[in-house]
Design a protein that fits this description.
about 750 residues; Rossmann fold; 3 domains; five-stranded parallel β-sheet; three-stranded antiparallel β-sheet; 29 helices; flat
Length: about 750
């Protein structure tokens, strides 16, 4: 370590002989500005400040009071920031766990079917008899008929454009089969590359099963391992996540090799296929195809997985987070048109959740939605909030139209409780619409995005609405809730309007099943639940009348089909009008609810920049404003001035703004050298403030300023700028110039 220096003595000068050979680090992060909490870390510091204030002048006492107020405000901000971080960790952990459980539940039926097929294949292979240990350990395979030398192969069709989602799917499939007793080996398409050859995939196979990587890949090692006690009683499943990305020649050799040992080593293939059943025929030669005995399995489509995630996460108020209308449409388009993977959708959802809890000052209150008794939680935690936080809550844009009489913690708790109830009602109606939309093959994601539209909730816009017909035979018990038979706020062709109209066309049997699902989803809406029960009783009574009429028709041999169809239409029309009324009353978009900003993320521009973004522009802005991120003592108050303590890359890019398209390397280097050799003045200004300033002065003045070190720093910074894509070397004729690539700031 360098010797310590006193304030009066100059720092030690390095030996000129060793100057060329002892290059110092190019850049050292400076000490950050001390936070205000640092002044309050110890008790003696507080006492000393109080004693000093007693003898201070009135002006200094006034300044100290201002600093004390600032300290208190900083402590409050830091406290609520910690609450937001804790709330985000809790909310996202539950969302992530739920997503994993949902995806696993979707595939569990297919996984069970694959497991049963694996056991059947293993029984078929073992049907001639189990070979003895001596036969298995022989150096040559057993000779059997051709039918026994085929490898049972399960082709799992994933329906995914990208294989990113399939990685987790096949990993979970392997774990499921392992839990059922099978020996499982997961191989990727990289193991079947031309570069690695047949030996590469055999080494990967032995590494996972035998847990030893031999120098020479030999199938006899695998046969010896399988002959051990406890291994030969279970099948060996080899999972290849994406068959179409494998090298056809390497995969064919692998199949031919294992087919010779299939009796001694009962291997069963499971291969992922993303396109059609012709994929194996297009990839493998005929002799390899003859060794396979295929069976087809189909996983759920990405759209089905997406609907399951939306239903389990975004339609649950208990998670304390939801997205706004524009954000939901962006996520849908991002999923359907740009990426098409569940992985990217989950990543985008996590970014939106993190941005929401980072930006929204009151987002820590969303944690109460995770509690069973949210009203009690909010009343206990937030009744005694500071006036500043209460004012911030009641000054939200959503509360301007519903201004409460008094800004108290109790009113805030009641408002949050009403928000939760309204969101629950909204999700119940969306569930009922989705159940009706299934008869029209409407996706939940489409209904979800449309139900979030703030323009939907407009009771006065009746001029552009779609009617469901005027039926004079309306039951008197439903007259008070069926207004005029029109869909409030629904345009022609909308998904919600299609779902409601589809209810009108349902026969009695599907209608009865639909009412059962409605009753399950609307348990928290007493009014809706009662009307559904009433419709069910009317439907049951009408069904009995229908059976009596059918008996009479059988006697007369003249069925009255038109009468029956009219009765079916009458009941479905009542159900459709009930659904229309529930849409009008309870499908109030979340962005129209008071205090929705606490749980709803609506900043689509921020999410777009995070997902799509402009990385080159962001790099340029960060290089020009590096002091805003480093927050160091020397650079923070300098503004746009170039200081020698700045990062070398920032210095060079700032200097490059003075040039045009082409930059002369010699001139650029001389400007850089002038800045680096510029004497530091930060020590003179801050020598009376803190010992850290003296230490910074010593470190800065003792930097190695030799010509070689400056050139090395210049070359390294130029290389970094070239790697980031901001500069490139000019033509061969002008080797002393570099060319700028990025402009537009």
């Amino acid at each position: 370590m360098a010797p310590s220096a006193t304030p009066d003595s100059p720092p030690s000068i390095p030996n000129p002989d060793n100057e060329e050979n002892s290059l110092q680090p190019f850049f050292v992060l400076h000490k950050a500005i001390p936070q205000k909490s640092g002044r309050k870390a110890s008790g003696p510091g507080k006492t000393r400040r109080k004693i000093d204030l007693s003898s201070a002048s009135p002006k200094s006492a006034k300044i100290s009071k201002v600093e004390a107020v600032e300290d208190e405000e900083y402590d409050d901000d830091h406290h609520y920031e910690q609450l937001r971080i804790e709330a985000f960790d809790l909310v996202w952990s539950r969302i992530e766990t739920t997503i994993k459980d949902v995806l696993r539940e979707i595939n569990v039926n297919v996984f069970d079917e694959i497991h049963r097929w694996v056991r059947q294949c293993f029984s078929t292979i073992r049907s001639p008899g189990t070979p003895g240990v001596s036969e298995i350990t022989r150096s040559y395979p057993l000779f059997t008929d051709l039918t026994c030398r085929q490898i049972f192969t399960g082709l799992v069709f994933t329906k995914n454009v990208e294989f990113v989602d399939d990685l987790l799917t096949f990993q979970e499939l392997g774990e499921h089969l392992k839990s059922c007793g099978s020996h499982v080996c997961n191989l990727s398409s990289l193991d079947f590359s031309t570069k690695n050859g047949l030996g590469g995939c055999l080494r990967s196979l032995l590494k996972q099963l035998v847990t030893v990587t031999p120098e020479a890949a030999d199938i006899a090692i695998l046969a010896s391992w399988y002959s051990e006690e406890g291994n030969y009683s279970n099948p060996l499943v080899v999972i290849i996540d994406d068959m179409e990305r494998c090298s056809g020649s390497v995969l064919a050799d692998f199949i031919m090799l294992l087919s010779e040992w299939v009796i001694k080593i009962p291997v069963i293939f499971i291969m992922g296929v993303t396109t059609t059943v012709d994929a194996p025929r297009n990839l493998l030669p005929a002799n390899a195809l003859q060794k396979l005995c295929p069976c087809k399995f189909i996983l759920g489509s990405p759209a089905e997985r997406m609907d399951a995630i939306v239903e389990a996460v975004l339609l649950k108020s208990c998670f304390g987070f939801i997205v706004g209308y524009k954000v939901a449409n962006f996520l849908r388009n991002y999923f359907l048109k740009q990426d098409g993977t569940i992985t990217s959708f989950v990543r985008a959802l996590k970014i939106a959740c993190a941005k929401h809890f980072y930006m929204e000052q009151l987002s820590f209150m969303a944690r109460g939605l995770l509690e069973d008794c949210s009203q009690s939680f909010w009343s206990e935690k937030y009744v005694h909030l500071p006036k500043g936080m209460l004012k911030c809550a009641f000054d939200l844009p959503s509360c301007e139209k519903n201004k409460m009489a008094e800004e108290t913690g109790e009113n805030l708790a009641n408002g949050l409780s009403d928000l939760k109830n309204s969101v629950n009602n909204w999700t119940s109606v969306v569930h009922c619409l989705y159940e009706a939309g299934k008869f029209q093959n409407i996706r939940l994601l489409d209904i979800f995005c449309e139900a979030l539209d703030p323009a939907l909730y407009n009771l006065n816009a009746l001029d552009h609405q779609v009617g469901i017909g005027n039926d004079s035979a309306k039951p008197s018990s439903l007259d008070h809730c069926l207004l005029d038979g029109r869909y409030s706020g629904l345009q022609k062709g909308s998904f919600i309007s299609q779902a409601v109209r589809r209810v009108r066309d349902l026969p009695l049997a599907p209608l009865s099943q639909l009412l059962k699902t409605w009753r399950k989803h609307c348990e928290e809406i007493t009014e809706f639940c009662d009307k559904v029960k009433e419709l069910q009783s009317m439907l049951k009574h009408e069904d009995n009348d229908k059976s009596l009429k059918r008996d009479a028709a059988d006697i007369l041999k003249r069925p009255s089909c038109s009468t029956l169809n009219m009765e079916d239409m009458k009941m479905s029309d009542k159900a459709a009008k009930l659904m229309q009324y529930m849409v009008r009353k309870y499908l109030k978009p979340i962005e129209c609810l008071p205090f929705h900003e606490i749980i709803c993320f609506k900043h689509i521009d921020i999410l777009q920049s995070a997902l799509i973004g402009y990385p080159r522009r962001k790099i340029q802005l960060d290089l020009l404003n590096s002091h805003n991120y480093l927050q160091c003592n020397c650079c923070n108050k300098s503004g746009n001035a170039i200081l020698p303590s700045m990062h070398d890359t920032s210095i060079m890019y700032t200097l490059a703004q003075e040039h045009g398209d082409l930059i002369n390397l010699h001139d650029w280097y001389q400007s850089f050298k002038t800045i680096v050799l510029q004497p530091s003045t930060k020590g003179k200004h801050k020598v009376k403030q803190s010992p850290s300033s003296k230490k910074g002065k010593y470190i800065n003045d003792s930097q190695d300023t030799s010509e070689a070190s400056i050139q090395a720093r210049f070359c390294r910074a130029l290389t970094e700028l070239q790697i980031t894509g901001l500069f490139r070397m000019s033509s061969k004729r002008r080797r002393d110039f570099v060319q700028r690539v990025a402009f537009g700031l």
